Structure formats: C-alpha cells, structure tokens
Description:
The structure holds two protein chains of two kinds.
Chain A: E1 4-13, E2 16-26, E3 31-35, H1 42-50, E4 55-64, E5 67-68, H2 74-80, E6 82-85, E7 92-96, H3 97-111, H4 119-132, H5 137-141, E8 143-144, H6 150-164, E9 168-172, H7 180-192, E10 199-204, H8 208-212, E11 217-222, E12 225-230, H9 233-250
Parallel strand pairs in A: 3-10, 3-11, 6-9, 9-10
Antiparallel strand pairs in A: 1-2, 1-4, 4-5, 7-8, 11-12
Chain B: H1 5-17, H2 23-39, H3 54-59, E1 79-84, E2 87-90, E3 98-102, H4 103-109, H5 111-117, H6 122-125, H7 128-136, E4 141-145, E5 155-160, E6 168-176, E7 181-188, E8 197-206, E9 211-218, E10 225-234, E11 239-246, E12 251-260, E13 266-275, E14 280-289, E15 295-304, E16 309-318, E17 326-335, E18 341-350, E19 356-364, H8 368-375, H9 381-394, H10 403-417
Parallel strand pairs in B: 1-5, 4-6, 5-7, 6-8, 7-9, 8-10, 9-11, 10-12, 11-13, 12-14, 13-15, 14-16, 15-17, 16-18, 17-19
Antiparallel strand pairs in B: 1-2, 3-4
Amino acid sequence: MSLLEIKDLHVDVGGKEILKGINLEIEAGKIHAIMGPNGSGKSTLSYTLSGREGYEVTSGSILFKGRDLTEMSIDERAAAGVFLAFQYPIEIPGVTNMTFLRTAVNAQRKARGESEMDAASFLRFVREKAAQLKVSDDMLKRPLNVGFSGGEKKRNEILQMALLEPSLAVLDETDSGLDIDALKVVSEGVNALRDPERAMLVITHYQRLLDHIVPDVVHVLANGRIIKTGGKDLALELEKSGYEGLIESAA
Amino acid sequence: MELNAFENSLLERADSARDRLPAWAEQLATAGAARFAQSGLPHRRLEAWKYTDLKSRLEAKRPEGAQGSRAAFHLGGALEVILTKEGMHTSAPLGEGVRIFPLNDALTKEPALLQKHMGTNKALQQDALTGLNTALMQDGFVLHLAQGVTLNRPIVLRVEVGEGEAPSFARNLIVLEEGASAVLIEDWAAPQSAPQLRHAVTEIMLADKASLAHVRVQDEKLEAAHLSLVAADLEAGAKYHQFALNVGAGLTRSETHVHLGGEGAHAELGGSFLLNGLQHCDTTTVVTHAVPNCTCREVFRGVMADRSRGVFQGKIAVAPHAQKTDAKMETRALLLSDRAEMDAKPELEIYADDVKCAHGATIGTLDEQSVFYLQSRGIPLPVARRMLIGAFVEDALDVVSDVDLQAALRAVIDQRLSRLEGVAG
C-alpha cells in the first residue's frame, strides 16, 4: 500500500475549480517533485493536503496510510504525520519560537498518546537539531519568524520538520527567496531527513532545487492536472524547453 | 434634575451614615452628597459616559452566574494584606516607614494625613460619583510611605469588603513621600457574597521622585458592577505605572486620571480586558501634562467574545506651556465574534507647540493565516487561538517591568482566555 494515494481529486477555491482530477501515489521513502507554471494548482494541492479552510474537495479521494485524509482536521493530519513547509512562513509576534516548537511537538505527542516532553529534555532535543540547521539560540528565543531573513525562515521550517518527524513532508516552493548558500543549508537539512519511512513531495517552479534534493519521480502539473510524469531527467528537460511546449503537446 | 428611586435611596443612606464621621470628614461628605444630588448618576448624554450609560445600566438587570473561580492571583514573595470589614490582616511586618490602615481606622487615627490629601485632586472635585463616594465612604485602605522608603517586596492587597445588597463605596488613599517607592497589587476577586455594586475611588499622591507600580486585578462575579476611579498626582520626577486587568463583573468602568504636575514626571498606563457573554467594560483615561518635560505611554489590549462590549476613551491633554511633552497612546482590540463590539475614542488636546504626541487605535479579528500555521503543526484549534490571543495581549504587559509579576498576571489571563466563548474547547 502506498503512503499517499490521491484519486481523481477535484478541488474548488472560492467557487472556482483549481484541481481538475489529480491522480498521485507516493510510496514511503520516495521523493516526488511537482513542477509547474504559476497558477497550475501546485500550492492548492499542498493546502488541500494540509486541510486549509477554503480548499473544498468536490470529488475524488485522498488516502494517507489508508485513512481518509479529508475527514481529518488540520491538526489531526499533522499528528498523523503530514507536514507542510510553507512558502511564506507566518510571523507571529508574542509567541517565541521555542514556545511554539515545544507546543507543537507536545501537541502531536499527546494526540498520539505519547507522554509530553519536559522543558529540559525538549531543550536538549531542539539544540541538537538546531545546530545541524545552523539555527542559533537567538533564533529560538525570538518571536516566531519575526525579523527572520528569508533563509532563516526556511531553516526554521526544516527545523520544525526535523522535530516533528512527519511521514509525509510537503515542501512548498522551499527554494523561493533563498540565495545559493541558504539553498544549500536548507537542502542539506532536507536530505538529512531522507528516510525509508518518510516520503516527500517537493513543489517547485524551478529545477535548481532538484539539483540539491534529487527526486525519484517528477510530475508536471498544468491547469489542475498532472500532464506528465517521469524520472529526475524530466526536470532537466523542462529547464531547457520550458513548460509551454509540454502544455501544448498535452492539450 | 429629578432623581430616581435608586439615587434617592443612596442619598438617604448618605444622610444617615454621615454622623459616624469626624467633623472634618463630615463636611466633605455633606458637600459630596450635595454634588451628587445636583446631577445624579452619570448617563450617556454626558460625553465622558457616552458609551456607558451608567444610570440606565444600573437599573437593568445584569446577567447572573458566577464568574467561575479562577486560580487566585498569586505572586510568590509578596507581602499579603487582606482587607475585610473587620479590619486588616498582614502576612508579615511592613517595615520601617510603611503604614497601611483600613479607611475607618485612618479616619480617626490619621486625620492630619487624610485631611491634607483627601479630595484635593482636581479631577475628582467636579465628579458627582466621587461626591457620592465621599458621602458613603466606608471600605477602603490608606497606604503611606515615608520619605525615601523603598518597599523591598510587592504588596498584594486582597479586598474582601462589602457584601450583600448594599452598594459598597471604597475610598483609598496612597501617599508616597519624596523618593519613596512601592509595588502594590489590588486583587478584587469577589466571592458570591460580594455586593452588586462597588465603587472605588483611589487618590494617589506621588511626591518628587516617588515611584509607584500599581496593578488592579478585577474578577468580580458577573452580576456585579465594578466602578473604579483612580486619580494620581505626580510631582517632579515621579513615576506612576498602572496595569488594569479586567476580566470579571457584568459592568466595569475603569477610569484613571493622571496629573503630571512636576517636570520629568512619567506615567505608564496599560491594561487588558477579556470579555465574554454580555460583559461591558469601559476603560477611560485622562492624562494631563501640566508642566514641560513630562512623558506618558499608554498600551491597552482588549479581547471581546460573544456579545460583549469594550470601550476605550483615552485623552491626553497638554497645557499651553507644557513644552517637550512626549506622549503616546495605543489601543488595540480583538473581536472574536460578529456580535462583539468595541468603541475606541482617543483624543489629543494640545495647547503647546513643541510636543510629540501620538495615538493609535485598531480593531480587528484573529488572523486566519496564523491560526492555520499553528494548526498545521498539530496544535489543536482552541490551543492555537489561545496562543495567538495571549500573544496579542502580551504587549500591554510591558507596562509591568517585574517579570514575576508579569508571569502572575499572565496566569490569570491564560485562565480567563480558556473560558472565553470561541476559545474554550
């Protein structure tokens, strides 16, 4: 059984159909990339998977570990192992990064019937993971994402992923706003989290991220449908020929 | 002006209560009663009471039901003073130069101190309700710090005066002589036996370079109306910090007047009101810059759930010669339901030409993106909402500089938030 099974998924946003019949299966341990032009529905797919309000599944199904994902609330999906790394992480003044991280980790542990981590053991846990991602103590103490640079925000997203240990990580345009050095740190962080038990869905407009996070499968999304699926070479092909030719030949 | 039955009953009570007072106080009481008789209870046609029509609201029945006992405000290491109608109990000696009395004791034992200060604040002299308070003053406390005395730990004053049907009129006086410094927390968490109507007037005199951090925590039962008026007079270099946390009572008026009367005086007013059901809470502040080189900051945060209503009226007045005034006032409100209401009326009245004055008022709802972000990390919706509301309120706590005191207030706030409609669950 696949970890994630999406069948003929149709999704409306604000009364307009954005996803028009997506079929996608992802097995544990695999990295899938979804590429596509702006407005093709890439972000809609990531928000639909995480359960954001306003993304209405009108038909089709999403099974995650055999469970109907559409029946679960946002936080239930997270506790079940779905993680979305945001394209634009939200700034929340008044909530320190550390408090946020501990609340999130403990909420998920609680939802899974595990015991919560006390402050001291959590601190050790965070420090270890934070060091690998070059997340400073200062970044942990500051209000969540407030005043963080683009790179710091993305590193903080990957830190959350490292702490929450999801079985499916959806990375939404993780490369946007990153310079080459930041891209390298973030990619290394993601690669360190590759695991036979964990699948990733990497959503990106550009091929360059896939030089660093090498996918097993590449899908091209256009106008709400997956129009082509191939291996990692498909990304290189797209980089050369662009989306347009492909979209025309698919139409 | 024709008075209604309730107003007349208050005046009758004032008449019969007067002869218990010493002669000098009886005079003040008589004058106060006369002032109240002229205008009666304030109503919405008075600008200062535009959003809180006290006269008709006191006639209307307030919602019933206990506030729900919160964990009592607790501050480790504080000196506890319990004020009951029998008198006062302190947990430890107050120390050299610090005196605290129940009002009734002070009226007979400290006539000179009271006569010198009581009723001298200009903001109070025309106020009809203060007149009534003076005529009926019974509960309350007097705190005096001698010159240069610093209280080495905060005083937590638990007010347990007044009970049953009769309205309770508390009159407090706080006098800090030159260079004295104190932290005082008033905790008004009333049991079910507490009165339906409470009116407290607190007069504060801060001499040169005196410093008072003053916190009021109000969590009265829902049937109650809690009306408070604080009037502080600051002399040169004095500092007054006030934080008002209003979570209880069906009807609250939290009014503060600060008179910056000596150069270099600084006032900082902050507060937070967290309302539910049909609660109505009015925060009114007037800060007067009477001389040059004074500063003030105001930061208020209100959270309104269900059909509750918050009011903020803030006025900063700058006298013609009060140059180099630096004043800033900010109020923000969060509406958690479509039926909640907030009225904000910031006012600047500036007669000097070399000043910095700013005000800001915003009213909004919880940011949906932030809620989604927290939830997407596995944080359940009620917890996510509570975190965000707590963060919203947090700014106002900056007025309180002591971190332990901040934490003690935060505990009351968190507990209250978990009971708000649309947050609980």
